[in-house]
């Protein structure tokens, strides 16, 4: 005992007061104050000032009761959202107020944006961002900074959590990382002003959007959820980081679960609110073929029909070819000519002719539909074609660049009809050596329409109509191809997935399109024409500025990306020598040969292609690295590509002695065409993914052989060998151990057994689920272990998953922790 006389005795420790208990009303009040937000356990703890284990246990107990009573909804892991605002208002009302409230009245005014059901997932507006030790969640609570340097740039959405803003100008700034809660609801392609922050993340500057200068397309495609009289649209595009609120009078008879196109009319300043929109197009119940394909078209801004004035203009074009027009052209109608196209094609924009010359050489004509004869500058057809810039080939339909009257009629090189063409004519010997080239307007009469399969039969059997001509041209094509590769062309090719569909668009089969000699023969002569047209225009003027032309260019890969790919390939035992830039293509081709037929072939070839730069249209004659051409253009597909129409016009202009054309307007059209081409490719991929998921939905429970094609912290992607459908095996579902991602070595590793799984590994998988709405496929690995072992592991996993995740003791360094806890810590 301490006394004044014994002042030197140690003081007794003062008892700390027991922290106040956390009540159920306090927990519910946090949700009521944040009706549209997703709140994780840690956020609840922070807001309620939790400091002890006992308080944490109280929160979990209250959460269980609130869930049971339908007041909050579990979304995923330990994340919850308000489920019923009216019920919550009643639950929080003081007893005295409840007595005074009339039946049907709402004691607390419901918030403008009501919560969404669990299937909508996490509210993507709210994202924690780490900076200088602060954790701003609510947006408005962030202290204002004094104005500092700002940058104007274009938004490039990366994930639901952050975007990059690509600065305008000369590259003075690197791309700026902006977290989505600081984007002011900017979308892909929007132009914004960004205020730079101090510091960086992953070596990139960071910033906040202070102003959206231009919204490119404030329209979103998604599935609508109706709650009472209110609607919320969950975007199909996973990079779109917010849902759209639709008030009752703007739903326009949409029903719960419909796939819709919504136009955003109001972008709030407060990031805790949701944008407000109006349904402007309803595609029908989500999951149906027409609804989903039409939704893909709308998502990528693809047109559904041609304007009436464009159709009328196309219908008004005469089919009659005037004699004076024929007189101005070189006549090939008496020369053997045929087309080779896919069996289901209707727009034949190229034909080949062949005749033997007196000197023993062969004249090969590459005849291209003369689209610009019919589509004149200043017309509605021209304006529409320029805007669309390309035809789009979805799985079950084509969205043409030009109306059917032109694409499948007037311009299509149908057999047994006189057709106007723009031709590249070559004198070659049987070894493929080129002697002369000629370019000009022509008229042809196709003798035969071949499908690729029919032409391949002639090549393999050496028999049938025009078999001699086809085999001669095929031999020449082989020689041209060999010369290309000798000069440094790259052999890597992407595999094209095709579907067999029934009359309703349902996939009956998925297969990889095989490129045989018939395909390669046509390709080689088209490459020859494109290259020689580009070289011809480039060489018309020997001094700068050269004549303006549309080139298709492909830069050499960036050294850093090549080195990264080389390190990846080295993990599989392949060594790339990249010291000599002139031998890069040789090294890549050698790798392509080495991996042929091996499990890692598709993975390595796919990554090699992604390592390459993207081909674009430009007026700069920069060459084509992948094809090993100094000059290359697109001349051979004007029915479906606007840059080919541009090349036709420029070539004709120069052939007629015209002066050089101004660069700027042509370059702008090149940029537009490149952007539209990228959009079309993304739409095509989306339609393929949807059909793959639809096909796999009928394969639930079936077993397939696949290879590991991707690895993330959440799981590993498996690509089925026979049909190239790709799905995920979640890391937490891999049997036998708990696995972690080893990002630096492109693999996942078991914690206890140290089993390594990496890219290209062969796996047997069972189809677990196929979600048409999310366009995802889930697999599980075939598990051949005894049933009692699998049951024991399942029980252990179930027990771990039932434990509260927010306060598990990790002091042991994670050895005894569950995978869920590991992922929970990582998810910050």
From TrEMBL:
Catalyzed chemical reaction(s): Exonucleolytic cleavage in the 3'- to 5'-direction to yield nucleoside 5'-phosphates
Domain S1 motif positions: 701-782
UniProt feature, compositional bias: Gly residues: 813-828
EC code: 3.1.13.1
EC top class, as a word: hydrolase
Chain intervals for the UniProt region annotation (Disordered): 1-21, 786-828
InterPro entries the record matches: CSD2 (IPR040476), NA-bd_OB-fold (IPR012340), RNase_B_OB_dom (IPR013223), RNase_II/R (IPR001900), RNase_II/R_CS (IPR022966), RNase_II/RNase_R (IPR004476), RNase_R (IPR011805), RNR_Ribonuclease (IPR050180)
Localization per record: Cytoplasm
Comp. bias regions, Basic and acidic residues: 786-812
UniProt keywords, alphabetically: Cytoplasm, Exonuclease, Hydrolase, Nuclease, RNA-binding
Its job: 3'-5' exoribonuclease that releases 5'-nucleoside monophosphates and is involved in maturation of structured RNAs.
Family to which this protein belongs: Belongs to the RNR ribonuclease family. RNase R subfamily.
Protein's recorded name: Ribonuclease R
Source species: Hymenobacter mellowenesis
